[in-house]
Amino acid sequence: MPPLSEFLTFAAVGAFAQLVDGALGMAYGVASAAMLLGLGLPPAVASASVHYAETFTCGASGLSHLAAGNVRRRLFWTLAIPGMVGATIGAYVVSHVPATWMRLALTPYLLGMGLFLLRRGTRNDHADEGTVPRAARPLGLIAGFADAVAGGGWSALTVTTLVARGAAPRTVIGTVHLAKCLVSAAASVSFLLHVGATHGTAVIGLIAGGVAAAPFGALFARRMPARAATLLAAVAVLGLGLNNVVKALH
Prior knowledge:
Number of strands: 0
Number of domains: 1
């Protein structure tokens, strides 16, 4: 594929993934990593490339959410600091150990949480936007680790768990995105030390497309009703879990 066509392909994928991610709070890393793995890149290289790009795309998306009033500062720091620690460790692990076991380990959780959210989305519970759910710190640590190992999963783990515990979807999505910027930066530093710079065209294309689409995703999240966001998140998580099941059977 010519360099320009390759760049435009990665930019289009980055833009599409960012729109979905900005609205639902998940899927950018998973979609991007899946594409890079499909091109034959090793898991460590694919995850490294995605995290290099996400340092910028999640920064743009997170700042857009901050400007839109979708971020809660207390929850942000509660997630970001342990998440950075987990991502640093996870990047080291994936650079030396195959990541297949982590994807398989996440599958039952994703399927179970998706079903739980489907049930919750049909209820009339009113979430407190100022709430910081219990266990947010260990959640950030585990999600940061899993995200670095599998090339994605930070948002799927944090958004679904926090919403399931009663936090408002709009503020969870915005806060998780801003925290993801720091988590991706920490993972990127660790990957640079263990893997080095990788597939520059993919990284630049993902950044360009993701940054361009970030403001639209934030506005979409702000206007979407909480119940609709919860149901869409449930469908997305179930899709991720089923995708892992299909891969495991082949």
